[in-house]
Design brief:
Blueprint lengths: L7 H9 L2 E7 L2 E10 L4 E9 L8 H11 L5 E4 L4 H9 L21 H8 L8
Parallel strand pairs: 3-4
Antiparallel strand pairs: 1-2, 2-3
Bound molecules: coenzyme A.
Length: 128
């Protein structure tokens, strides 16, 4: 489960990414992240997550560092609406970039459309 997503769709997303980073503690998956890039100019980093039991142990920093070392491009974008995570990214050199626009089709976020129906019926606390 990653950000409310699970199953074949999130698996395909990782398989289709240009770079993926997985961190294991023995057989236990404790960290994930991925990037999509054209290899020359642009890259986007997605789905950076460390298991709660393992946070604040530099695992997220190390994953970002490993991804960035393999992204020889002039602009790397990432999206995060989590204030804590934004502090983490700012420490790693990411800054506000106001020229970014996004077009959202929220119904495509989850495999199961009913999952989205449950979420939109809850109060919205943040949005892009
Ligand atoms: C944000 C996240 C990736 C950071 O990974 P991490 O391994 O915990 O980060 P690090 O240990 O490398 O932290 C480095 C620094 O980032 C900052 N930081 C990290 N997590 C933070 C938090 N929760 N609150 C405030 N600052 C934080 C701190 O400054 C920290 O340094 P410090 O521990 O010396 O104070 C991780 O906390 C996480 O997965 N959070 C949940 C995000 C999520 O749900 N993502 C889903 C995306 S789909």
């Amino acid at each position: 489960m990653l950000g409310g997503r699970a199953g074949a769709k999130i698996r395909r997303a990782f398989e289709s990414s240009s770079l993926v980073c997985f961190v294991f503690d023995d057989a236990r998956l404790i960290g994930v992240s991925r990037a999509i890039t054209d290899g020359d100019y642009h890259a986007v980093i997605y789905d950076v997550a460390v298991h709660p039991d393992y946070q604040r142990r530099s695992i997220g920093s190390r994953m970002l560092s490993e991804l960035l070392d393999r992204l020889p491009v002039w602009r790397v974008i990432l999206v995060s609406d989590d204030a804590d995570a934004q502090r983490f990214y700012r420490r790693l050199g990411f800054a506000d970039y106001p020229d970014v626009l996004a077009r959202l089709d929220r119904g495509r976020l989850y495999d199961d459309a009913s999952h989205w129906d449950q979420i939109v019926s809850q109060p919205v606390t943040s949005s892009i």
